[in-house]
């Protein structure tokens, strides 16, 4: 392989919950995309950038491929996945060690077959029967011509260097696209909205259906601090008390934890207000989704 600098886009695809976000974060070494036990927490494509001596990796973190529901939201999410695959240089198909389901198989027809698709078998730390791995890999390899297979543990940081080497060798030669210290090209506002959404999912995700989004409505930043107002949009009036909690306790906790993270991110004091708005049926109307910035 030549010593020329390489730079390119990498997409992680896989059914929900296989650990795509955790893996991206482990590779980039900073918490940018949000991680949660709940499926479907990453709705946007997020670029994280890792720059090394000989390569620049530009990661695109795609949402979980959806097959369970037929709503406009899921159709749009699947379109985002398809688009992401068409635009990138390397696709990493992430699966879970020992667990192959129809959700994994349904992705296969979308994967590029030109030698740029790598299989990453995540969560090897959780695999009880290590001997079963051989049969598991064989079964998957029989179904798709992967260019490489790398067992990893995003959580424990196992074999990540190996995965980076496999990805890096398949990136096109070319100059870096981002400054070396760029972690993400997403604006701060977007990340702030993601922080609020992350807290909501962690605290009331089990009770709240997936139709909830966060929009930053006010953003005033000076050298001394920032004033931010975030609006949480829910589908039904009945979702409001879930978010509020008894005496507003949930909302207070969500706002306080999000404010703390924002202050850390911006490295200055943050004043955060969080409102709730009800907008009926928004998650099933593509037009409404577009209004809110989901394309
Ligand atoms: N044991 C183990 N757990 C992991 C590993 N990587 C991720 N997880 C866990 O798996 C769960 C899902 O991880 P995410 O990174 O949110 O998964 P995702 O594929 O991005 O999920 P979506 O955003 O829903 O598509 C979390 O609870 C992680 O802590 C791993 O290597 N080992």
From TrEMBL:
Subcellular location, record wording: Cytoplasm; Cell membrane
GO molecular function annotation: GTP binding; GTPase activity; ribosomal small subunit binding; small ribosomal subunit rRNA binding
The keyword Ribonucleoprotein is assigned to this record: no
InterPro entries xrefs: G_ERA_dom, GTP-bd, GTPase_Era-like, KH_dom-like_a/b, KH_dom_type_2, KH_sf_prok-type, P-loop_NTPase, Small_GTP-bd
Residues that hold GTP according to the record: 14-21, 61-65, 122-125
Segments of this protein annotated with the region G5: 152-154
Ranges of residues in domain Era-type G: 6-173
Pfam families per record: KH_2, MMR_HSR1
Membrane topology listed for this record: Peripheral membrane protein
Region (G2): 40-44
One Gene Ontology CC term in the entry: cytosol
Keyword Iron: no
Keyword annotations of the record: Cell inner membrane, Cell membrane, Cytoplasm, GTP-binding, Membrane, Nucleotide-binding, Ribosome biogenesis, RNA-binding, rRNA-binding
Chain segments carrying region G1: 14-21
Signal sequence, start to end: none
Predominant subcellular localization, coarse grouping: cytoplasm
NCBIfam families the record matches: era (TIGR00436), PRK00089.1 (NF000908), small_GTP (TIGR00231)
Known role: An essential GTPase that binds both GDP and GTP, with rapid nucleotide exchange. Plays a role in 16S rRNA processing and 30S ribosomal subunit biogenesis and possibly also in cell cycle regulation and energy metabolism.
Family annotation (HAMAP family): GTPase_Era
UniProt family annotation: Belongs to the TRAFAC class TrmE-Era-EngA-EngB-Septin-like GTPase superfamily. Era GTPase family.
Protein name as annotated: GTPase Era
Naturally occurring in which organism (per UniProt): Paralcaligenes ureilyticus
Lineage: Bacteria, Pseudomonadati, Pseudomonadota, Betaproteobacteria, Burkholderiales
Gene: era
